[in-house]
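Researcher: Hi, I'm a grad student and pretty new to this. My advisor asked me to get structures for two proteins we've been looking at. I'm not sure of the right format, so I'll just paste the first sequence and hope you can take it from there.
Model: That works fine. Here's the first sequence with its structure tokens right after it:
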Amino acid sequence: MRFCPPYELLDESRGRLRIKLRDPQERRPDLSLSHRNERRLFLKANYLHIGCTVPGDGPPADGQISFKFRGWFSRQRAVAAWTHQVPGGDEWLHRLRDPLGKGVVMIQAVQLLRIDWSARRQVWRLDLETLSGSMMSGITAVLPIAVPFDREEAAGVIAVIDALAATRG
């Protein structure tokens, strides 16, 4: 399996639809990919979950950045905000807003995008769920439909990881 730029398969958990990818040049942290099934009345979705822990610098207290997406072209209008007041958080959010925005705009069909900061561990934790790279079906589709995850979206995820890694002083 290749993830752009090319990651290599590090580990595959048999039977659990979870894989780990690593950057062979060790410039970026490992990625964890898995699927989360969700059943609704008229929709069955199998969201792709991408997780990553990135060492870096940040505010002196723990916090969580969440993203809200608005409108038809929601990824172009993503709003990032701390879920609660974080001392020094506004400066960090201002510093991260543009680089994160450049990556987020490339990712389509985002269900969840959250970034946690651990001041004690000095790491950022990225959690992304998207319909891209998943399967879905519903009342009008008898067979599941594959939703592709394209190179631009992979580059967007990498851009978000690079934005978090750039905080390391």
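Researcher: Oh nice, that was easy. Here's the second one.
Model: And its structure:
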Amino acid sequence: MRRHNDLAGRRAFGEKQFLTEGQFLRFAVRPEEDRMTKRQKTYATFETFEEQLAHCYFILHERFIANPQLSKFWTETAIAELQHASILRFCRERNLMAEADIDFSTVDHVEQLLETVKGIISDIEVSVDEAFYAALLMESSELDDVYQKLIGALAKEHRPLIDSIHADLRSHHVAFADAAERFCGDRGMAEAFRNMSRRVS
């Protein structure tokens, strides 16, 4: 049988030319592009977390509207969280992303804590101590640690900006400590926030 009539042989040859899904993805998306996509997703995820936390603090502003000073405090903390989200977006949009290894368990834990906080503040009768406890859950979580890792790429070309961000983080926790001391019945709450301000690099 002549070679060009060898249908079985031609079919076998053709089968060797098909790419597996893995091979196709490897050719279609270069490894550095894939890493970039993962980093962008990480940044976008934590932008969303910061925005959700800001929303929680805005709700607490409404919960304590009868106490102008306490209500103002929650507004200021909400704005600080929105600034964190904006900085992460700035890093992502300008490709100033750190190669931080954030595992799934960290993302999952922060997400679960946010759901717990949402549950606490959904109660229209939430107490001051409960509100600060909810805030402490988030402020002492991995959220700030991840934020500091993700903005690390700014250190090389934007040193004044990152210095200002770190100063703001310390002020953020000091403000929580001062407010807890002023408004909470639990004195230990203020010390917990004060200890956090010392952890900021």
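Researcher: Is there anything I should tell my advisor about the second?
Model: You could mention this: The CA atoms of residues 3 and 9 lie 8 Å apart.
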